[in-house]
C-alpha cells in the first residue's frame, strides 16, 4: 500500500501542469483542519484517508477567535478555493468541547468560550462544515482508516501531554449529552490522589499525562537527589525535567526512570481495565507521544488488561498501537465531514 501511495504524486492538487488525466478526482475529496492551541494543520484528504496536500499555520491563540478563524478561511481559500469544489465538505477537529451545532463551548488552550466556529466557517467558505473535538477526530481517523478499521466497537486512548480518548460504540462515534464523551484521561484511578488539571483528584491524566510524569519525576528527584542524578544531568537542571527526560533516562537504563515508567504503565493498565469493563470494545487503540516513547508498553498493557478485566470483555479483545500518527486528526476530521455530508 505504501508503494502504491509513493507512486502517485505527493502533491497532486497543486500540480497545475497535470491536467485532468491522472489527477485525483477533486470532486471526491474532503478538506480538514486540526485546530490546536499552538498550531493549525490543514489538509486535503481522499476517500481512502490519504492526505493529498497539507499545510500548517500558527494559531497565535492570544488573539481574538475571529482573527484565528480569519486565518483559517484565508489559507483555505488561497490554497484550495479554486481546486476543491465548494460542494466538498470541511471537517474540523478542535481542542475543546464542541456542541452539536459546531459551537466551541469551551477550549482552554484556545481561550475560547462559546465560539460559533462551525457556522462562521460555513458562512465564510460557502461549503458544508462539520466540527468535532480533536481527540474524537483522531479516534474517527483511526476507526475509518487506521488501526481500528473494520471494528464497530472501538476505544482510542491517546497518552501525550494530556490523556484523551474517544469511543465508537455500535458503529457510531459517541459525543455524549454535552460533547465530552471519551474524556478517558479523567477517570479516577486513585481516590484522593494527585490533583488533576480538572476539578478532580486522582485522574489517570494526573499520573500518566506528560505534565504529570514531569511533576512526579521532579518530586522523586527532590526526595532523593542521588538517585535523580541522571535525570538532572540529562535535563540540565532539576526544574527542566520533562516526560521526555524520563523516557531518555529509561532507555539509558536508569533505575529511577524505570520505576517512574513502570508506575505510569501501572496506572494506564488500571484505567484501561475500567474502560474495557465499562465499554466492552472489540478493539483498543493506544497512541500519543508518551505511549510511542515506550516500545514494549502496548504488549505489556494488553497482557495486564487481559489478566484483570472481566473474562467476557477480553475474550475477543484486540489491543493495538495507533497507525496514523500525528495526522490522525486531519484524516479523521475529513472522514467525519464526508460521512456527515452523506447523512
Ligand atoms: Zn482530571
How many strands appear in the DSSP assignment?
13
Report helical residue fraction: 25-40%
Structural class: alpha/beta
Main sheet? 5 strands, mixed
Overall geometric form: globular
What small-molecule ligands were found?
zinc ion
Describe this structure in words.
- There is one protein chain.
- Helix 9 (255-279) packs across helix 11.
- The model is unreliable at 1-11 and 14-22 (pLDDT under 50).
- A five-stranded mixed sheet has the order 3-2-1-4-8.
- The protein starts with a helix and ends with a helix.
- It is globular.
- Helix content is 40%, strand content 19%.
- Strand 2 and strand 3 form a beta hairpin.
- The protein has helices at residues 2-7, 65-80, 117-125, 134-145, 205-208, 210-223, 229-235, 243-251, 255-279, 289-292, 297-308, 311-314, 328-342, and strands at residues 30-35, 39-45, 51-58, 90-94, 97-98, 104-107, 112-115, 129-133, 154-159, 163-169, 172-173, 283-287, 318-321.
- With 343 residues, the protein is of the alpha/beta class.
- Bound molecules: zinc ion.
- Zinc ion binds at residues 186, 196, 198, 200, 203, 205.
Topology:
Elements: H1 2-7, E1 30-35, E2 39-45, E3 51-58, H2 65-80, E4 90-94, E5 97-98, E6 104-107, E7 112-115, H3 117-125, E8 129-133, H4 134-145, E9 154-159, E10 163-169, E11 172-173, H5 205-208, H6 210-223, H7 229-235, H8 243-251, H9 255-279, E12 283-287, H10 289-292, H11 297-308, H12 311-314, E13 318-321, H13 328-342
The structure holds zinc ion (ZN).
Zinc ion binds at residues 186, 196, 198, 200, 203, 205.
Amino acid at each position: 500500500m505504501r508503494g502504491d501511495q509513493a507512486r502517485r504524486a505527493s502533491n497532486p492538487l497543486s500540480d497545475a501542469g497535470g491536467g485532468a488525466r491522472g489527477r485525483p478526482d477533486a470532486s471526491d475529496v474532503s478538506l480538514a483542519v486540526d485546530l490546536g492551541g499552538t498550531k493549525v494543520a490543514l489538509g486535503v484528504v481522499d476517500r481512502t484517508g490519504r492526505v493529498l496536500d497539507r499545510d500548517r499555520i500558527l494559531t497565535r491563540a492570544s488573539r481574538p477567535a475571529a482573527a484565528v478563524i480569519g486565518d483559517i478561511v484565508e489559507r483555505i481559500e488561497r490554497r484550495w478555493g479554486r481546486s476543491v469544489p465548494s460542494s466538498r465538505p470541511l471537517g474540523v477537529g478542535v481542542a475543546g468541547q464542541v456542541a452539536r451545532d459546531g459551537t466551541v463551548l469551551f477550549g482552554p488552550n484556545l481561550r475560547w468560550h462559546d465560539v460559533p466556529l462551525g457556522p462562521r466557517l460555513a458562512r465564510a467558505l460557502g461549503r458544508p462544515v462539520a466540527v468535532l473535538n480533536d481527540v474524537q477526530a483522531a479516534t474517527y481517523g483511526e476507526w475509518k482508516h487506521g488501526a481500528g478499521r473494520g471494528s464497530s466497537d472501538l476505544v482510542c486512548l491517546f497518552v501525550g501531554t494530556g490523556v484523551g480518548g474517544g469511543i465508537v460504540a455500535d458503529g457510531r462515534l459517541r459525543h455524549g449529552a454535552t460533547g465530552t464523551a471519551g474524556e478517558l484521561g479523567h477517570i479516577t484511578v486513585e481516590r484522593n490522589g494527585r490533583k488533576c488539571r480538572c476539578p478532580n483528584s486522582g485522574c489517570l491524566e494526573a499520573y500518566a499525562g506528560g505534565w504529570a510524569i514531569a511533576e512526579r519525576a521532579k518530586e522523586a528527584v527532590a526526595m532523593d537527589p542521588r538517585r535523580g542524578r541522571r535525570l538532572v544531568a540529562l535535563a540540565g537542571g532539576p526544574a527542566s525535567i520533562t516526560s521526555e527526560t524520563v523516557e531518555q533516562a529509561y532507555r539509558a537504563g536508569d533505575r529511577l526512570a524505570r520505576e517512574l515508567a513502570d508506575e505510569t504503565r501501572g496506572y494506564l493498565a488500571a484505567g484501561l481495565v475500567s474502560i474495557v469493563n465499562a465499554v466492552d470494545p472489540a478493539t483498543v487503540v493506544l497512541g500519543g507521544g508518551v505511549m510511542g516513547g515506550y516500545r514494549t508498553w502496548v504488549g505489556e498493557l494488553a497482557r495486564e488488561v487481559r489478566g484483570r478485566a472481566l473474562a467476557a470483555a477480553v475474550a475477543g479483545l484486540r489491543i493495538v498501537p495507533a497507525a496514523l500518527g500525528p495526522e490522525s486528526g486531519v484524516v479523521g476530521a475529513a472522514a467525519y465531514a464526508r460521512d456527515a455530508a452523506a447523512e
